[in-house]
Design a protein that fits this description.
DNA-binding transcription factor activity; elongated; 43% helix; alpha/beta; D-Maltodextrin-Binding Protein, domain 2; Arc Repressor Mutant, subunit A; transcription regulation; 3 domains
């Protein structure tokens, strides 16, 4: 390896590409993520090695891997790079009107009403900002936040540690039982499996499904199911058609307005349990942007979802609520 180069300053772009490659282990994936060509990425990584005068990669391996020196370098720059990103975000977004780029991830639970209003509001408050909106599962959005592919996301709070991501709780969304309007058996009998009405559940790879399953396990309830679905509207349509019953939340129930005349909602029997809807942000997301997004989300949830649900179903008034900001 050549001696350290004194002709160039250390480039922040080199360091960012180095971190991205260390995470993806692929020149092509790094190029796709950064919008550069593979040859340009390779050139920048070579320039970093030449500047430092050390071998960061084992170029004889395909794909190339970090050397012990490269792994040490990766650990040593991690905190500094996070600090640089945070400082850059705060500097560019101290005034939100000056922000230039924002990447937002949302779950489908909000895409019919809250997310569109948020998008319009942000475009007005941040007129020179380029936005990227991604809709996906909570698992997917949290993963993208960890990889710094998104700046903030609205998700179901996972039970697992978020590591360096920051959780801003928004909404307490209790689990409820939803039955066909035509169901004649009592809810306790249905939940206990004493009827022929089958349990229709969310796809097992979703956070909400894991939360429901964990609670049923704590209660010692085993519910054989014949249907799994990742789409709330489809699940509500199946229940409305009398094909079974399900466990869902008031937020999701509120999105199924066309099916509600054929549905009945009940508190889940026994000890109540629920999920938390949260705004999750990367540590380098500007606080001014977080405050702007959080305030709008709370306003829309309160006006469009919570107030209407409380009027229609008064017993949810103390359960389906915004979570106080700390």
């Amino acid at each position: 390896m050549a001696t350290p180069s004194s002709h160039k300053d250390l480039s922040l772009k080199w360091l960012e590409l180095f971190q991205t490659y260390a995470r993806t282990h692929s020149l092509q994936a790094t190029a796709n993520e950064t919008g550069l060509s593979v040859s340009t990425v390779s050139h920048h990584l070579r320039s970093l090695e030449e500047h430092l005068g050390v071998a960061l990669f084992d170029h004889a391996r395909r794909p190339m891997v970090l050397t012990p020196t490269g792994r040490n370098f990766l650990r040593n720059i991690a905190q500094a790079m996070q600090g640089i990103r945070k400082a850059t975000a705060e500097a560019s977004s101290g005034n939100v009107a000056d922000a230039s780029y924002l990447r937002v991830g949302t779950i489908e639970d909000l895409d019919s009403d809250v997310t569109p209003e948020l998008a319009v509001h942000l475009s007005q408050k941040m007129p020179d900002c380029n936005f990227l909106y991604h809709t996906g599962t909570s698992h997917e959005i949290v993963k993208m936040l960890r990889h710094r592919e998104l700046d903030l996301g609205i998700v179901t709070s996972p039970a697992k540690s978020l590591n360096d991501l920051i959780d801003w709780p928004l909404l307490r969304d209790p689990f409820v039982a939803v039955l066909p309007k035509s169901a004649e058996s009592s809810l306790p009998d249905i939940v206990a499996g004493h009827t022929k009405l089958p349990f229709l559940q969310f796809s097992s790879d979703l956070i909400i499904a894991a939360q429901i399953e964990a609670q049923l396990r704590r209660l010692g309830v085993e519910l054989p199911n014949k249907f799994e679905c990742g789409n709330n509207q489809t699940l509500m349509a199946m229940v409305a058609a009398g094909a079974g019953w399900t466990i869902t939340t008031p937020l999701l129930f509120s999105r199924a307005r066309r099916f509600q005349p054929k549905l009945q909602m009940h508190p889940f029997p026994g000890k109540s349990f629920g999920r938390t809807l949260s705004l999750i942000t990367s540590p380098d997301c500007a606080r001014s942007v977080i405050d702007l997004v959080s305030h709008k989300l709370r306003s829309e949830l309160s006006q469009q979802v919570i107030a209407q649900t409380h009027r229609a179903i008064p017993w949810l008034k103390d359960q389906f609520t915004l979570i106080d900001q700390v």
